[in-house]
Amino acid sequence: MIVSSALMIWKGLIVITGSESPIVVVLSGSMEPAFHRGDLLFLTNFHDDPIRAGEIVVFKVEGRDIPIVHRVIKIHEKENGTIKFLTKGDNNEVDDRGLYKEGQNWLEKKDVVGRARGFLPYVGMVTIIMNDYPKFKYALLAVMGAYVLLKRES
C-alpha cells in the first residue's frame, strides 16, 4: 500500500511539473554557494518556457547516468527559433563543454530534465549517505523490515 501510494504521488508530480524527475539531490559541490551537496531540488520542465541565461537547469548527457545541476551561462538562438545553450557550475573554473558528449559544444532543450524552482537544504543527505555507505542502506532496510514484521496492527 505504501509503495503504491508513493509511486502514484511520484507519477502525479511528473505530470504536474512536466519533468521526468521532479525532485533531485545535489551530489557535488559544483554549484556552491547557490546549492550545497545534499540539497533537495524541486524541478519543473514546461516546454513553453524559454531557457534563459542565469537559470539553473538539470540536464542529462549521453553516456552519463547521473543528471548534472548547473547554471546556463550562454544562449545561442537561431533565426528559426531553436535554442542551444552552454552551462557551468558556479564553483567551477571552466564551462561544461568537457562534460558533454564528444563533439558536443552546446546543450539543447531535449537534454534538460528540469529547471530548479525551489530547494530544501541538506534533506538529500540521507540519499548520499546510503549511496556512499551501502552497509548503512542495508541496515536501514533491515530495521524498517523488522519494524513492519514485528509491529502489530491494533
TrEMBL record:
Its EC number is 3.4.21.89. One of its GO terms (cellular component) is signal peptidase complex. One of its GO terms (biological process) is signal peptide processing. Residues 15-101 form the Peptidase S24/S26A/S26B/S26C domain. Gene3D superfamilies: Umud Fragment, subunit A (2.10.109.10). Residues 1-19 form the signal peptide. It catalyses: Cleavage of hydrophobic, N-terminal signal or leader sequences from secreted and periplasmic proteins. Catalytic component of the signal peptidase complex (SPC) which catalyzes the cleavage of N-terminal signal sequences from nascent proteins as they are translocated into the lumen of the endoplasmic reticulum. Specifically cleaves N-terminal signal peptides that contain a hydrophobic alpha-helix (h-region) shorter than 18-20 amino acids. This is Signal peptidase complex catalytic subunit SEC11. It comes from Athene cunicularia (Burrowing owl).
